[in-house]
Amino acid sequence: MAVVDRSLTRLLNQRRLFLSPEPERTAATNAMYVCVDDGFPGGVPIGHVTPSDAGTWSAYARVRPGRIFAEDLVSAELSSLEDAVRAVLEHARYEDVMADLESVL
Question: How far apart are CA 76 and CA 52, in angstroms?
Fold first, then answer.
């Protein structure tokens, strides 16, 4: 797992989110997924970030609630993993996932 700064780790924990690397068997892009901790392995992805060959990062987020696996590019050419994850957090819409999770807990 990639090392991220403490403030970002705290923010993820407060929002019941975690980072999950792309599974090795499919790791074509070295993506890092931002997921809701729903109590199951892997969680529910709400976005992901990918590095480029140029050393920058792109951020994709779930911006259309109700479309679980639809993610849109929300920012590109970011300088770090942390900046890319923060871009996902700024744009991701996952209230429906949290509401569903709260209803079963």
Answer: 10
